Amino acid sequence: MTVRLSVKNLSKRFGPVQANDDVSLDVAAGELHCLLGENGAGKSTLSACLYGLYRPDGGRILVEGAEQVFRSPADAIAAGIGMVHQHFVLVPTFTVLENIVVGTGVGVKLDLAEARKRVRALCERHGLEIALDAVAEDLSVGEQQWVEIVKALYLGARILILDEPTAVLTPQESDRLFALLSRMKADGLSIILISHKMNEVMRSDRVSVLRRGRLVGTIMTSAVTRDELTCMMIGRALQPVEAKPRIASNVPVVQVRDATLQDLRGVRVLDGLSLELNAGEVLGLAGIAGNGQRELIEAIAGIRRIDGGDILLDGRSIGGSTARDIARLGVGHVPEDRFKDGLVPDFSIAENVILGQHWDAAWRRGPLLDGERMAHHANASIAEFSIVATGPDAPVRKLSGGNAQKVILARELAKATRCLLCNQPTRGLDVGVIDYVHNEILRKRDEGVAVLLASEELEDLIALSDRIAVIFRGRIMGVIPRGSADVARLGRMMAGASTKDVA
Amino acid sequence: MAWAGAIAVAALAAVACCSLLFLAAGADPIAAFAALAKGSFGSARAIADTLVKATPLILTGLATALAFRARLWNIGAEGQVFAGAMFAYWCQSSLGPAPAIVQIPVIVLGAVLGGGLLGGLAGVLKTRFKVDEVMATVMLNYIVIYVLSLLLQQGPWTESGGFFEQTALVPAASKLPILWEKTRLHLGFLLALFVAAILQVIIQRSPLGYEIRAAGSNLRALEFQGVNVSRLVIVVFLLSGAIAGLAGAFEVYGVQYRLKSGTLSGIGYTGIIIAILGQLSPRGVVVAAVLFGALLNGATLMQIKTGVPSALIYAIEAIILMFFLIAWAFSQFRLRRIDHVV
Amino acid sequence: MWSDLLEAGIIVSVLAATVRIATPILFAALGEVVAERAGVYNMGIEGMMLMGAFAGWYANYASGSPVIGFGAAMLAGVLMSLLFAVMVITLEIEQIVTGLALNLLGSGLSTYWLRSAFSDMNNVPGITILQDVRIPLLADIPYVGQILFDQRVVCYVALLAVPMIWLFLFRSRLGLEIRCIGENPKALDIKGRSVAARQYAAVLFGGLMAGLGGACLTIAATAHFVPDMVNGRGWLAIVIVIAGGWNPWRVLIAALVFSFLDALQLQIQGVGIHIPYQILLAMPYAVAILALMFRRKAGRAPAMLGLSYRRE
């Protein structure tokens, strides 16, 4: 086994946080090596050091035995290291070929013809098929990922780092990806897979587990079980939150009837969608990003207006109501992007907790806002939700992702007396906070609130939901009870199969 | 505290830079600065004049700061000053003879309406037609100035028998009362301070101010809570324009006692500098406006005593602004790096 | 009287004037296209054009050579945009505010230096304006010849700049990179190429063109420098960039349309029609607003326009 990449005693610190602490590992040629750890364990920092985005404080990096110093990604690329980021870095208005070619080559002229030949050759060699003249923003997420991979290969990567690659893929697309990775391994490439998802991890050859910046160990994947790995990853045995089965009430709180919605480009993001949320139930919403989950949730919350069909809350039509009125009727909304959609970063916790209710008499003394009452309420929320902050005046942009999400929860859970809408509520959070959020969702369910939970983590959905609906291209493909749901079946529905086709 | 530091550094750097400019012009920097200081604060009359010059700047500074707070780039204070002056003049001159107790509120109302409508127009262009507010307000500035020129050049408002582009003197009952005997300090100064105080309360402690500040930080989060952001944009532009309009009316009825373009120019654009130097806060704006009033006032004496053209003042204003921006950016950099956690 | 305008000689004269009037704005707009394609919103064009006009005029006056004049103007533009670049790219100061500050600086400094150098405002010396250069043979084509081939040298340069900038943006390697950083700078950063260096280059080029455009107003048009003589043309250049959808050819068309209005109003006054000049002068700005109101959807702004990029 020839070692291609060797990391020795790598350390990197950011202020008070030791992101990587004396990490050593190596990756062989033709190996699929997984870097496992939960959010904040140091995997992203390590890969960023490998790609030249950060300079390590200590330790060495060797490629093919030769010591490397990366001052920038250019040096890493020259050493044969390529990276596919979790959030794709494509120029939406460029074609696939332009995306691959930009930033490469020398000379004045832009030689697309030459590049086209090279890319075609590369694709043939690895068995990839991509449409070189398609515009990047028109591609599906899976197709965009292929482009990202070809980008890295075009730059001559022999060591490929993939950051959480299957987060946005269906199970079937995942399989295709791993088939490609196998081919690349056979061709001699080394692949480093960064992940915290068990099904990806178990497909690797070896796995290195990081926890709080330190390497816990490197072992052959075949010699270890999922639970053992999870234990290494979080330092204790995991007791995932699981909903106790209960008899659903079947009293619909929210009814969506034949909703249609077109976006600015004329695409039907909601295409005759019908759905019912019942009281005291968690309805999971599974689907690949971009199939209408966001639009559906925003439509129910009143942020978007549907073009056709209707939405009823407790029997009353809310299709034309404003978000403020709908919130007043007892609907809470935990949005997908914490800092962009749900919070005002420069405002304090106290100010964020009343966002949307700032005109209500409850927070006013006369015509002005009552600072004391707001602070009091903020302190109560901080205590109740265990928010780690310096006080109610702390600006929210200084909070960690988990604490920021708790501020949103404090606000939205209080509003949600009839319905709670959650869109990817645990994305990017570490296990402790994820459990907390799940528990809060179940608590609301037990209070009789109708909960809609949209999530890309299929295993979480199966554990928490009473029923699971699958959305695909703006329609509901089917709603299955928790008992009959498994990842494979959901995956097929997410890719377009309806319940009739899937036994 | 970083703000005070940034101002101090900016002031020093500006002084150094201006000294170089003075030397290049063949003047003695010390004499020039001394004349500047004497001209601005050297006597009761000088102080009063400084405050007179500061008054319109307070208002345009407030107007711009309010809009900038919501990240609405209202560059139209210049035109809104004119619009306020023109509308106020139109209302007042259509009124006919009336006592001051009637004329002055009419003037204020006219100013607020004139400036507000022009600002509101920019707001509508932005919300309804998606026209970038920077472009809209700048274009409207030029248009309004030409409209005034049209009205004053052998037009319906021209002083009869006169050759200049100006109106006749306004009636005595419409002139703003003088606050300090034997000076030119007029009621407008107090009213400007009053507006600053009100704005401070509104921005910091009212629900509207909450929305304005939130809009400046993350407009989308407001949309997600169902706030009608189009309406908010128009309201901010109406208010901003109205305040700027007051500046125009006060110049006409408090200082010049007639409507003409010359003295109204530049008040709007300088207001933008004031707003930035004042860190977009009403208190800061008042301080910065008085400082600039001092500079403008002292420049005349500086020109007399040292021969340095008073036009240098405009360059000095810009230099102070640039140094302030740079100094402030450095202090932010320091703050930003400490914040950075993985 | 209106029909007098339709006489062939008048039409040709108006069109020829159109090309002449468009030249300064075209330079500024083309420079701004490159800067904005790189994601930088330079609102200080007005100030840079003023400094260019002043520097060009003064250098020409002092040296007697228009070439030195243009050189000085371009240098002035580059220096001002260098200051702008440091403030918005390296120090990440808000682009709109910095642009405004630069306008005020350009206006203040140019006026001050004018007054310093020539205290008697009635006696500011003039320079010899650039003469027209006829292109032999082509200038003899009826009508078109007079419009396109009997102009000042700078007009030819401006017209040639259009295809050159188009070639640069859409057929050169560096042009692809510049367009990339205006849409998604991280995509280039991640390949190890410096985003900041390219933004600096784009901004400096914009400044050079703005300075050049400003100098056209003095050296190639009026012989004097008058305070604030750019009078909104810098802002119009920005409008033209938007109206032209950030594409050099459409920017050319937009520039010609605005300049045509300007040329027309000069002719209208000449023919004796009594429209108050204020209305005619205000027309370009009103048309600019209308153009922005009814813009086609095609021609999206670069996604990162006005935003600072920092690698996390």
Element layout with pairings:
The complex is a heterotrimer of chains A (503), B (342) and C (312).
Chain A: E1 3-14, E2 17-28, E3 32-36, H1 43-50, E4 58-63, E5 66-68, H2 73-78, E6 81-84, H3 96-101, H4 112-126, H5 141-154, E7 159-163, H6 171-186, E8 190-195, H7 198-201, E9 206-211, E10 214-220, H8 226-234, E11 252-262, E12 268-278, E13 281-286, H9 293-301, E14 308-313, E15 316-317, H10 323-328, E16 331-334, H11 338-342, H12 349-353, E17 364-365, E18 368-369, H13 371-384, H14 401-415, E19 419-423, H15 431-446, E20 450-454, H16 458-464, E21 467-472, E22 475-481, H17 487-494
Parallel strand pairs in A: 3-8, 3-9, 6-7, 7-8, 13-20, 13-21, 16-19, 19-20
Antiparallel strand pairs in A: 1-2, 1-4, 4-5, 9-10, 11-12, 11-14, 14-15, 17-18, 21-22
Chain B: H1 2-24, H2 29-41, H3 44-69, H4 77-95, H5 100-129, H6 133-152, H7 187-205, H8 207-217, H9 219-224, H10 229-256, H11 261-264, H12 267-277, H13 282-306, H14 312-339
Chain C: H1 8-37, H2 45-63, H3 66-90, H4 95-117, E1 132-134, H5 144-148, E2 150-152, H6 153-171, H7 173-183, H8 185-189, H9 195-218, H10 233-243, H11 248-271, H12 277-293
Helix pairs in contact in C: 1-6, 1-9, 1-10, 1-11, 2-3, 2-4, 2-9, 2-10, 3-4, 3-9, 6-7, 7-9, 10-11, 10-12, 11-12
